[in-house]
Specification:
By secondary structure, the protein is an alpha+beta fold. The chain has helices at residues 15-19, 29-54, 56-59, 78-90, 95-111, 254-262, 269-285, 293-305, 312-327, 334-352, and strands spanning 7-10, 68-71, 131-134, 144-150, 159-162, 167-170, 175-185, 188-198. The strands form three sheets. It has a three-stranded antiparallel beta sheet with strand order 3-6-5, with no helix packed on it. Strands 4-7-8 form a three-stranded antiparallel beta sheet, with no helix packed on it.
Length: 355
Amino acid sequence: MKLSDLKTYSFELALVALALLSLTDNIPVEDKTALFATMGAVISASIKANIRKRFPQLLQGEELKPLQLEISADDSGVQNQLDQILQKLSNFPKAPLLLFCLFGGVGGIADAKEPKAIISGPRYAEPGEDIFLDFAQSEGQPDRFHVSIKPDLPGRSQLEVMDGGTRARVKSYPGVWNVRLIVSNDDGWDEYTHTITIPGNPPCPEPPPTPNPIQPLPEPPKPPGPTPTPEPKPVEPNPDPQPVAPEPGRFALAPEVFRIASTAKSSTRIPDCSRLASECRRIAEAKDNYASLNAMATDVVTVLKSLPVGWEELKTRTGAAITGLYSNGLLTNRDDLAALLLELAPAFDAAAKVK
């Protein structure tokens, strides 16, 4: 570095560190001058920030103004310039404190480091088992933590942040969950995603509503006592006998569905019954194509909503009955819903034949 012109360098309390160079006799004067300029350029930008960050309550609002050092190529005595530096520092009201802050600030420059997000914890667990994740091993001394989990389950508590954001408890609902951690400090930020796998079918986004109790079917009237048997009359064959209600089956809904479908007030009742039977068989046969029980049930609801005016009783009673089966543990997976639909399909077929 050539000092052909007058140079002025602003150090903001860094001049003490430069003064230490004067104690070394084996460095030429021009090299010392170059070192002064280089060190000042590196540390002056951060000294004030480090002092205010580390000891803001001790400065008591005093403004830190830059100290100026003039270095000229014509000056032969570096020691005279250092005397000028020390004289300026001696006039500062808190020189001992700021000397300590200075070296802390220089160390802070060397130690400045962007954070690195690290999540410690299991990646697999059983349903119902609490999972604890630790973020305290994140590098770079981050002082801000933000954690989130995807996908969301509205209405359910999935994530509980603890210990000032350095730990979290994750509820182990079945499915694959991505926990995202973002850490930051004054030097930068970093993020990391931790994947947790829980075996089983993912739950519905919201807890099911409390169902209305299923009304039991009325008992058939008792047969009357014996009566005299009249002489039989010849029975004419019925060319088009009326269909009878199907057997209750596993879920005991088919007779009630047959009765409602047979007496629906829709002007398109017969073709509607045939379509409902076909839709029940279609959804049941495609059960493995649905991602979950909730998706399969949504398709059933869509079919019911498409019915015209006159089917209100079927929509209300069927929806309440299916909700009751779910609440009582009789409808827990896609196979159960498929079995129910295959019981209802013959009931709609029979209702379609009622004139």
